[in-house]
Design brief:
This is Beta-lactamase family protein. InterPro entries: AmpC-like, Beta-lactam-related, Beta-lactam/transpept-like. The chain is an alpha+beta fold. It has a single domain, classed as DD-peptidase/beta-lactamase superfamily (Beta-lactamase), CATH 3.40.710.10. The protein contains eleven helices and twelve strands. The strands form three sheets. Strands 2-1-12-11-10-9-8-7 form an eight-stranded antiparallel beta sheet, with helices on both faces. A two-stranded antiparallel ribbon has the order 3-6. A two-stranded antiparallel ribbon has the order 4-5. A hairpin with a 5-residue loop joins strand 11 and strand 12. Helix 2 packs parallel to helix 6 and helix 2 packs across helix 7. The chain is globular.
Length: 349
């Protein structure tokens, strides 16, 4: 059966890439927590590295839950402990920041943000500038009464775990996840120069006139307010397998992460309004996890990520016996990583 799956995957991936004219694509599929297939274009000698964008939120959540296990904080702690000046901060919990029910506004739809990225791609906003256009303007809704995707919510969580530990976000991710799991190509870039090892990708969002620019030479990762991880599909799959096998967190923590609430579409990153031909049935969100309890493959848990130059998609399917898959693309228009994930899954089912 595995040989048949591999053969079908080769055919579908080659077709997807050739039809779309894409070179920077990489896919990893694990079945029963064993690496059954790793694919990237034959011209690339090694598995390429990509920015995973909002897949980073799973890492942030894992670190926060580890700190809860150490009794350094709890998910029910109010935001006011660290940010008392934010409106209704005493009513916002860390749990609500994690599952996007806190009412913290996002900047993804703000023209000012995208204009700033185009004008100064190598000079990101400060914390204060992100705050000024989002939560300093007030909340979208009363905490706990609705759902809206919020990158600034995770910016606040990043600041909180740094304050609690006295360590940088980069060091926390390395010490709590990267080093214990032996992830050799995963890291948190903090400068333009540190993007040099990534697979090449261009973006039209880094210049006022829309001229394509090499993301590795112009884009500062600080424009992702909550921090961003660079990695490979194989290492992201290893991370997911470790997470859902309770090798990184206790079972009760993983169960908390997978406690899903319905989402308000189409605001979740990388997820469009469902159509009959699409695999999303009941789109939901847990703690740092996109999910669907009623997908074509049963419960699915993971995340999409997208931004200048790259898209990424990684999901785990416990009801398929522990299947995990991650796809990454070095392109921002047309073929998306999620398209590849679902195309592969339809072959596995």
């Amino acid at each position: 059966m595995v040989t048949d799956i591999r053969k079908r995957l080769v055919e579908i991936l080659n077709t997807l890439v050739q039809d779309r004219g894409v070179a920077g694509v990489s896919v990893t599929l694990n079945i029963n927590q064993k690496p059954e297939y790793v694919w990237h274009p034959p011209l690339l000698p090694d598995e390429p590295v990509f920015l995973v964008y909002s897949i980073t939120k799973i890492f942030t959540t894992a670190v926060l839950l580890l700190l809860q296990e150490e009794e350094l904080l709890t998910l029910e702690d109010p935001l006011a402990v660290w940010f008392p000046k934010i409106g209704q901060a005493d009513c916002i919990t860390l749990r609500q920041l994690l599952n996007h029910t806190a009412g913290i506004p996002d900047y993804g739809s703000l023209r000012a943000y995208h204009d700033a990225v185009r004008s100064f791609p190598s000079i990101p906003w400060t914390f204060e500038q992100f705050a000024a256009v989002t939560f300093d303007q007030g909340l979208c809704f009363a905490p706990g009464t609705s759902w809206a995707y919020s990158n600034p919510g995770y910016l606040l969580l990043k600041r909180i775990i740094e304050a609690v530990t006295g360590s940088s976000y980069r060091d926390l991710i390395f010490d709590r996840i990267i080093r214990p799991l032996g992830l050799r190509q995963t890291f948190v870039p903090e400068s333009v120069e540190e993007l040099s090892s990534l697979t090449p990708a261009t973006s039209c969002a880094l210049a006022l006139d829309g001229t394509p620019r090499d993301v590795r030479h112009y884009y500062h990762p600080g424009w992702v307010s909550h921090g961003v991880i660079a990695s490979t599909p194989s290492e992201i799959v290893l991370f997911l397998n470790s997470l859902f096998s309770n090798l990184l967190l206790p079972q009760h923590c993983v169960e908390e992460m997978a406690r899903l609430v319905p989402v308000a579409l189409p605001t979740i990153e990388g997820l469009a309004t469902p159509k009959p031909t699409q695999p999303w049935v009941r789109p939901s969100y847990g703690l740092g996890l996109m999910g669907d309890p009623a997908s074509a493959w049963g419960l699915m848990l993971g995340h999409n990520g997208g931004g200048p130059g790259y898209s990424a998609s990684a999901f785990h399917f416990p009801e398929l016996g522990g299947v995990s898959i991650c796809a990454m693309c070095a392109m921002e228009e047309g073929l998306k990583a999620e398209d590849i994930v679902f195309a592969v899954l339809y072959q596995v089912r």
